[in-house]
């Protein structure tokens, strides 16, 4: 492999890894916070929603709707398989304000549909009954 090509691959790999780490602290902060249920971390809640057959993937990135580099969006993407085999995807959205050190729940998307607090809670409850 040519040295120039190897150097390019190395630069791209380092840039990709750096990008992943850019929001790692925000993701950890949101996981530890209790934004939805008092006494239960956001991470524990996401794992509970996923159930035994589900997975949880955490993502972080800019939150353009807040127009502030201090506010970071963090999502828990939950892929859940119900006991009857039905597949669901739940995305819990949070924001982490780096300046005020506050974490807030910012909404949920259940199977591609934006939910308000009441309908989101009901949809998650119904998934638990499957």
Descriptors for this entry?
130 residues; alpha+beta; 5-stranded antiparallel beta sheet; globular
Short description:
The protein has 130 residues and is an alpha+beta fold. It is built from 4 helices and 5 strands.
Overall outline = globular
Total beta strands? 5
Largest sheet composition: 5 strands, antiparallel
Mean pLDDT: 82
In terms of per-residue confidence, which ranges show pLDDT below 50 for 5 or more consecutive residues? 10-19
Tell me the radius of gyration. 18 Å
Number of helices: 4
**Helix-strand topology string:** HHHEEEEEH
Biggest sheet: strand arrangement: 1-2-3-4-5
What would you note in describing this structure?
This protein is of the alpha+beta class and 130 residues long. 38% of the residues lie in helices and 32% in strands. It has helices at 3-21, 24-32, 42-50, 117-129, and strands at residues 55-62, 71-81, 87-97, 102-110, 113-115. A five-stranded antiparallel beta sheet has the order 1-2-3-4-5. It is globular, with a radius of gyration of 18 Å.
SSE diagram, text form:
Blueprint: H1 3-21, H2 24-32, H3 42-50, E1 55-62, E2 71-81, E3 87-97, E4 102-110, E5 113-115, H4 117-129
Antiparallel strand pairs: 1-2, 2-3, 3-4, 4-5
